[in-house]
Amino acid sequence: MIKRYIRQTWAFLKQNKLFGSLYIIGTAIPVALTMIVITFQYIRVGSIYPENHRDELWISERGSFLGAVNNISQYLVEKWFYPLRKYGPVTAIANDNFFVQLPDGQSMTNAKCLSTDTDFFKVFDFKFLAGKPFTESDFHSGRYCAVISAALAGQLFGSEAEAIGKTMKMNFTDYVVTGVVRDASSLTPRTHAQVYVPYTCMNGGIAPNRFEVTGPYKICIRAPRDKGRLIQKEIEEKIRRGRIENKDENLIVEIPLISWKSNITAVRKVGEWKDDDMVAKALKLWGGLLIVFLIVPALNLSGMIAGRMEDRLPEMGICKAFGATRRYLLKQVLNENLVLTLMGGCIGLLISWSILVLGRHWIFDFFLPGFYTFTENTDDVLLRAEMFFSPWIFLSAFMVCAVLNITSALIPAWHALRAEIVYSLNQKK
């Protein structure tokens, strides 16, 4: 049955090359554009290595005190957020850039560094290619040690295995390599780096005794969704007490948000705790684009099909005269359009891949400004295969296009097939 429909569609295409080409292109373009838009959002909210559990990831990144706005202080990290480990692992992350001396001993390269704690490798699912994370003992002692990316290990030591236990010089200080991990993409900004070190080796491991709100750290908490509200309530209560004790009503700390909200509203004003309005605006914007990409081509195809069905009236009249039912002919027309839609969908998939891969150095910066980080060492990991091909992304885009295309074909086809046999035959030119 399927083979017969494919043969019929192929014969139809050979007889109607212009119409077939326009139909396929008219399907391919909205599928491609839709997949690009959906892929952007999937990268922001989907589970992507090493941020494989974004549905359990809670983010707090901003604070404000006495008019100063920045990230979170070490004081709050240890006094406010580490006690939340009763709900799940809590990590503090600070961004930095190091100069790493290359093997020739003369030249240096710039490497992005994340200074963090041992829970970092519990919150995020890094794949260790060699070695292991730095330990609690390393962290509390402020030992100069590091976990590095596979790309940097290859650049410095030739292979991942050779890097373990070796010393690398960063900012003119020796660090011992304890582990090598698979590279994180620059499109996962909270985990992307070439070097990961204990933040205690940066500040001597001494926790501040005086109250501070702002500092260099971003907080990531991995906890079940049902614990999220408990986490938020605890931080809200600490903010309330902090305002009273420090006599500052403007003291603000970002209430932990689930990762997808935090990513969609990446540019936020401090104090917009729930960000409901900004989420709604983001969904309206991208939803509006999808409607334009899908509805407008469908309307154009409907007009094309209506014109084409008028030309096919004699053919339909002859089929009716030989006993073909209206249902049979309608099924034939719809199956032809379904095959053409499938062909257009596959071509649209290839187009979206080509645009995303070939234009990766500017397209993400254009559509997602400030969302991702890019350094000289990230060309090979900027976009991974699992990011731009997720089966449900393609299936969702294709199914919507298929429904719209079939609907746009159904209406003119049904109208044309209602014509009497004599009328249809008289349309033959």
Notable traits:
four-stranded antiparallel β-sheet; 429 residues; 17 helices; 16% strand; 14 strands; ten-stranded mixed β-sheet; 2 domains
Shape: elongated
User: Portion of residues in helices?
Assistant: 40-55%
Gyration radius, rounded: 29 Å
Low-confidence spans: 266-275, 375-381
Characterize the largest beta sheet: strand count, sense, and whether it forms a barrel. Answer: 10 strands, mixed
Proportion of beta-strand residues: 15-25%
Q: Could you explain the architecture of this structure?
A:
With 429 residues, this protein is α+β, with helices and mostly antiparallel strands. The chain has two domains: 2-48 and 278-426, no CATH class; 62-203, no CATH class. The protein is 53% helix and 16% strand. The protein is built from 17 helices and 14 strands. The protein has helices spanning 2-15, 17-45, 74-81, 120-123, 136-141, 150-157, 160-163, 200-203, 225-246, 259-264, 276-311, 313-321, 326-358, 360-367, 385-388, 391-417, 421-426, and strands at residues 57-60, 63-65, 68-72, 90-101, 108-116, 128-131, 145-149, 167-170, 173-181, 195-198, 214-215, 218-222, 252-253, 257-258. The strands form two sheets. Strands 1, 4, 5, 6, 7, 8, 9, 10, 12 and 14 form a ten-stranded mixed sheet that branches. Helix 2 (17-45) packs antiparallel against helix 16 and helix 11 (276-311) packs parallel to helix 16 (391-417). The longest helix is centred in the C-terminal third of the chain and has 36 residues, at 276-311. The protein is elongated and about 90 Å long.
